[in-house]
Amino acid sequence: MTRNLISEISNYKLAPYLVCLLLVGMFCLYTTEFASTEPLDPDLVLYFDYEDFKADTVLEKSGRGYDGAINGKVTQSKDGKFGSAGHFGIGSFLDLDGPNIDPDDIPTEGMSVVAWINVEAIADMAIFNARAGDNTWLVHPEARGSGKYRWLNRSPGGTTIFDIRAGDNKANEWQHYAGTFSRADGLAILYINGKNAGEEKARVGTPIAPDWDSGARVGYNIDNNRPFAGLMDDLNVWKRGLTEEEVNIIMSEGVEEFLAVEAQGKLATTWGKLKASK
Question: In which domain, by residue range, is 100 found?
Answer without folding.
Answer: 44-277
